[in-house]
Structure formats: structure tokens, C-alpha cells
Specification:
By secondary structure, the chain is mainly β. Helix content is 6%, strand content 37%. The chain has one helix spanning 17-24; strands at 29-33, 39-40, 55-59, 63-72, 86-93, 98-103, 116-123, 129-135.
Length: 137
């Protein structure tokens, strides 16, 4: 009997280590520039607003809205076959940045642009926890 292939695990780098550690604690964090106040995601070494290196990690509210989405009906590999259909979405966080994730906890056909969502976390392994989003209560 063969095992199903593993999901693609995120690569942890010096820039992303604190983000993944926070996800493991079930906290969503983003970077904020202490020079200009811009919040950003994905993690980088420079501020996207002013190019400063004065970035700090801050806890995000976890609330946002669906900016765009697609319903995946054909899995990219066998590792995701049990999840189809699933929603891949761009989530506009309250803090400003946009992140790509999945919308879970609802029928994929009910997802709409502008739909309010709240972060939830899914353990993919003992060391990797991934943020996803569910409809806000």
C-alpha cells in the first residue's frame, strides 16, 4: 500500500521564521514599518512603503474580506485530491496587506467577493501550521 504524496510544505527562511512560529501559536502576524507605519505581507527585509529596514512583527486582527477567488475542482496533485473542490482566495486583511490562502468552513459556491472572513489555523504537520480563512460570524 502506498502513501499519498505530502502537501507542499512552506520553506522557512530568516525572513519568514517569526511568521511561521506565530502560526504555530495560532496567531496571524504581519510586518509593520516603524518608520512609516505601513503593514506588509509577505515578509521582506525592506519596507514596501519607504524602503526602511525598521520592520517589526505585529499581531493582525485576523479579519479581512475576500478580494478575489477561484474554486479549484481538479487537484494540483494527489496530496490535495481529498479536498476538491476548494477555494483559493486573495484576502484583504483589515491592516491593509493582501494574502493568498484558502476559504474553508463553507460551501465553495457560497464564497463571494467582499465576503467577510476570519483567520483559522490548520496543522499540516507537527511543525507546520497554516492560516486559512472561514466566513466571519
Amino acid at each position: 500500500m502506498s502513501e499519498l504524496p505530502m502537501k507542499m510544505m512552506p520553506a522557512v527562511s530568516p525572513e519568514t521564521a517569526e511568521y511561521w512560529a506565530a502560526c504555530k501559536r495560532r496567531e496571524l502576524v504581519v510586518q509593520r514599518c516603524s518608520s512609516c507605519g505601513v503593514h506588509q505581507f509577505y515578509p521582506r527585509v525592506l519596507c514596501t512603503g519607504c524602503s526602511a529596514r525598521t520592520l517589526e512583527w505585529v499581531r493582525a486582527s485576523g479579519r479581512g474580506a475576500v478580494k478575489s477567488y477561484t474554486v479549484v475542482r481538479r487537484a494540483v496533485s494527489e496530496a490535495y485530491a481529498a479536498e476538491v473542490p476548494y477555494v483559493v482566495a486573495l484576502i484583504a486583511l483589515e491592516e491593509g496587506p493582501t494574502m493568498m490562502s484558502n476559504v474553508v468552513g463553507c460551501d465553495p459556491e457560497s464564497v463571494r467577493i467582499g465576503m467577510p472572513v476570519q483567520v483559522v489555523f490548520e496543522d499540516w504537520s507537527e511543525t507546520v501550521t497554516v492560516p486559512k480563512f472561514a466566513p466571519a460570524a
